[in-house]
Design brief:
transmembrane; transmembrane helix; membrane; mainly alpha
């Protein structure tokens, strides 16, 4: 348990040295961490909602473009699911 604590403190100190946060006050460091975490949270939310949604939409369009006519020929009962291409 003690070795894990020393490794974490070692990597945290390396992080502070690389980002040069060791030179600022404690409240500024905490503010920087909060802003960074909020930025990462917003970017991950953007990625989850918009980018993955767009990829899903493009995959459905490609599937319908390639196999839409074959699916429409096989079944005429699901006309509402297959838009005209």
């Amino acid at each position: 348990m003690d070795t894990i604590k020393t490794k974490i403190s070692y990597w945290y100190m390396r992080y502070l040295l690389v980002t040069e946060l060791f030179m600022v006050d404690t409240w500024e460091r905490k503010l920087f961490h909060v802003i960074t975490l909020l930025l990462l949270l917003v970017l991950s939310l953007f990625n989850h909602i918009l980018v993955l949604g767009a990829i899903k939409y493009i995959r459905v369009l490609c599937f319908l473009n390639f196999f839409g006519s074959e699916l429409k020929a096989q079944s005429t009962t699901h006309d509402a699911l297959l838009p005209e291409l």
